[in-house]
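Predict the holo structure. Ligand: adenosine-5'-triphosphate.
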Amino acid sequence: IPTEFEQARPIMQTIEAAGYEAYFVGGSVRDTLLHKPIHDVDIATSAFPEEVKQLFHKTVDTGIEHGTVMILDHGIGYETTTFRTESTYQDYRRPDSVTFVRSLAEDLKRRDFTINALAMHEDGEIIDLFSGLQDLDNGVIRAVGNPEERFNEDALRMMRAVRFASQLNFTIETKTTAAIASHAELLEKIAIERIQVEFVKMLMGQAPQMGLTDFLETGLYRYCPGLADGQDLIERLRRLDHLQLASEVAVWTVMVYLLDLDHVKTTKFLKAWKNSNQIIDATHRANAALHGIMQDSLDNWLCYETGEEDLMTAADLAALLGKTVDQSALMAQYQALQIKAKGDLEITGQDLMAAGVQPGPMMGKLLAQIERKVVNNELTNEKEQLLRFVRDNK
Ligand code: ATP
Ligand code: MG
């Protein structure tokens, strides 16, 4: 039993002492049984939200309409969700309504895959109603119940299947795979933001080839933004040896690189996937650097504009794409830059004004010129030198 569960035991005992049931559920149980680190402890209980709130001093209504209350205990928050069923899915996504129930079995039945439908009692006992333990042992992702019905209810589950295949290095069971293939089109009903989360997790998983193979063979990719004709891209990604992507930016950069998108099309593609401006900017930088490394044309200016983090991403990706990269030489090139940002210049707008330059576009131009020359080592970043340049060029 991991320490996170140990710490939560008093909470479980409090709930049970009041006559209700409480179990650990979801990813934390699955990951514990796989001896993987767990991130969040989810608790399911027969107590209704108001009943949970009466039992503890500090709670937060994090999602009370879905039955979720966070219990605060010694600075740790525990998400506690009332057993529930989800009824009448009419739009292939979220249920129309949730109904709170007192039965654990009902709650486990609505969960997506057998490995996610295990519950663990505070004493360590496992409740396994759908042979989830066997599937965990065999490395299998299997829908709970009839896979076609389950994907009809909520099409996001298809993306979750390929994401877990990749994260866990598991195989999707045959009928579940077939149901994904026949229902792939329903993905169009799902908000892109939610598809994106699963897609990124798939590509960042420990065995992305696993997820990618199903993503390709079931045709799910066709219903993802910009990937209607993405077969070739997915094939190429899948065939990369040691495909390991360490960040979101790495995911998007390798995609736009392999798709060979120009700047405008890159922005369009990333926006279609609902990426934040921060991710879009970082991807542009990493992609420019990646092109530079691949073409042996990474100069000081490109290093500088890219910045350390995105440069490392580009270096990793270049290696992944088969380029021999001297990472330490690359880092040395970056570290040797005289400035890492404009603010590092030993001269300011004030200094320029003191030297007789009028504030305005001319001053901006002159500063930009100085910045470029310092980065290219055509000027030394010393006040006197820079002022001399200003006097000669104003
Ligand atoms: P992660 O490690 O990524 O958090 P997880 O399995 O905990 O994986 P969550 O999205 O946190 O995934 O969901 C918690 C649990 O809720 C799942 O294990 C599953 O039992 C259930 N669940 C989540 N999303 C769905 C869904 N779309 N359909 C059915 N059950 C779901
Ligand atoms: Mg979780």
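Residues 26-27, 40 surround magnesium ion (ligand 2) (CB under 6 Å). The longest strand covers residues 76-82.
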